[in-house]
Design brief:
heterodimer; A: alpha/beta; Rossmann fold; nine-stranded mixed sheet; two-stranded antiparallel sheet; B: alpha+beta; three-stranded antiparallel sheet; 2 helices; elongated
Chain lengths: 236, 88
Amino acid sequence: MPIKVAVIQFPGSNCDLDTVYVLNKIMKIETDLIWHAQFKNSDYDAAILPGGFSYGDHLRAGIIAAYSPAMDIVKQMAKEGKPILGICNGFQILVESSLLPGALLQNDCLTFICKWVHIRTETSNSVYTKRIKKGTVIRIPIAHGEGRYFNDEKALKELNNNDQIVFRYSDEKGKITAESNPNGAFESIAGICNLDRNVLGMMPHPERASEPILSPYKSSDGLGIFQSLKQFLEGS
Amino acid sequence: MTEYTVEIVIENKPAARDPEGQTVQKDLINRGGYNTISGVRSGKYFRMKVQASSPDEAKELVFKMTNDLRIFNPVAHVCTINVKGASK
């Protein structure tokens, strides 16, 4: 059976087609775009929850999609150890589904932020970073209004101890500073994984940094995440 | 059964900060000359009608609903439920 990935589309998703394009055309991984109501089985090898504003971000970004029946299947897949990636709104959905701990709150600046930032890879020990050396700085865009990661002190300590913090906002040299933290995220957290390391949520958009032609900085740094996923899926 | 009006207020825990409340206080209220006003908190507000046999039952049902459906995120939010009495 060839490897097959699902990108699940909710009302209000965006960058869903970009993600499918990157996986199909650049990574050469067979990928389907599936409307959430049609996502009825866990035959796929991995699932990606794209960015956007599912259900208009009503109540709280990601909460209504978190109660979609599609998420029951995503939870089942996560339990089976299959890779689940949540990008931006996808990260918010994963948090609201309790597949990842914490909360994503309104940015400190109170406005929507859309810009290119740097993130530092904090661990290579995840499905999505196995091909990225720890400490590598990635240039990648963010586009969100509610991306300020929050968790209580005890949980943050556990995330650190368990090596679950995958990406932190940094400057271009990899230094973590207040200025390089665009949204006020606690501990500059940009992405975390679960204990089994197969579920990753990240606010930045790797699919928007996968071809130099689409980047003002000619960055294709986001590809490392998809290359790592491909390597995992191929079992190599 | 009586119809009760129930209100839900959701606000950030102090540790999660409240940038909107802080900005409204500092840059609008205090700057506008209202210096005796402090502790401004922003949040989300819902009002609903609930069929129940008592105010306590109405509150209990809404409490269960807010937890079952994560109307608030327990990691970051405090949720307050008030029964405002029978609807008119």
